[in-house]
Amino acid sequence: MVWIPGGTFAMGSDDHYREEAPAHPCTVEGFWIDRAPVTNAQFQKFVAATGHRTQAECPADPADYPGAPPERLQPASIVFIAPDHPVPLDDPYRWWHYVPGASWRHPEGPGSAIRTRSHHPVVHVTSGDAEAYAAWLGKRLPTEAEWERAARGGLEARAYAWGDELEPGGRHLANVWQGPFPHANSRADGHAGTSPVGSYAPNGYGLVDMIGNVWEWTASWYREGHGGGCCGASEQARLASIDPGSEHGGLPRRVVKGGSFLCAPSYCRRYRPAARMAQGIDTSTCHLGFRCAV
Q: Does residue 65 belong to any structural domain of this protein?
């Protein structure tokens, strides 16, 4: 783990997506955070020691999803499958698919495996799975404010964790999408999916993969904008995170940070410290992982 000194920093951004605004001063106490996202090898040790089954490996409770057809209640997770031609970008279900049998052990579904991905970030984990792993080690998930301070690496008011250019001098500094999204990834950075942690240079605090590779869970409940606050972990904040009109229905939503290998300049420019998204607590995907804090 790496020690992140406490202090006040400029959180959020007024220059990109509306949910990142307003930019505002935020103060956090010093904390420790994992140098890298939790890997498949690390998660495998946890599962072997505890017998933990991830939510993606368990059938869903029909009571939680009234009216859902039985085939939607079987063990499954959400997988990116690239279409073979250009598609409109206003319908994410053209590339996101609910795949029975997909899990952290089988990232693309039955027939896929992690034998050669021991040092890749674990994926297909819900916030509950991440919290269970953290608790096993006497750790916790970082708050959104902690995560963002750590991701900035000591830089203030910069677009990226390394400055204001996505690819300074033509160098790839994070695992993100190159080419027309979602059908043609040129793999100019050498990766089509997740990459081994530490494949890119660390930020100013010595942390790797804070940007790109996989989104990361935080402990903070989501709200549309910062509203001048730094984080939200109260019961009131949990209830306020629920948006029945969203794809997550009546479930609470947490903040996820960092972007992933699927973030593209043409579609999702969220490979920045200020970027944030809402994720329902039951959601697991092929591009969502986590790291721990103390």
A: no
Q: Is the pLDDT of residue 285 over 90?
A: yes
pLDDT digits (tens, 9 = 90+) for 33-67: 999 999 999 999 999 999 999 999 999 888 877 88
pLDDT per residue over 163-203, tens digit each?
999 999 999 999 999 999 999 999 999 999 999 999 999 99
pLDDT attached to residue 227? 59
Which residues sit opposite 96 in a β-bridge?
Answer: 80
Residue 235: other Cβ atoms inside 10 A: 8
Stated as kind and residue range, the H or E segment containing 100 is: strand 96-100
Nearest to residue 117, comparing CAs of 203, 214, 50?
214
Q: Which of 109, 98, 39 is nearest to 72 (CA)?
A: 98
Domain span holding position 113: 1-58+75-294
Do residues 228 and 152 touch, judged by C-beta distance below 8 A? no
DSSP for 107-170, written as a single string: TTSTT---TT-TTSBP-S--HHHHHHHHHHTT-BPPPHHHHHHHHHTT--S-SSSSSS-SSGGG
CATH code for position 118: 3.90.1580.10
Exposed/middle/buried for residue 260 (C-beta within 10 Å: 0-12, 13-18, 19+): buried
Asked, for residue 253, whether it belongs to a domain, the answer is yes
Burial class (CB in 10 A: 0-12, 13-18, 19+), 57: buried
Comparing CA positions, the residue from 33, 17, 36, 35 lying closest to residue 194 is 36
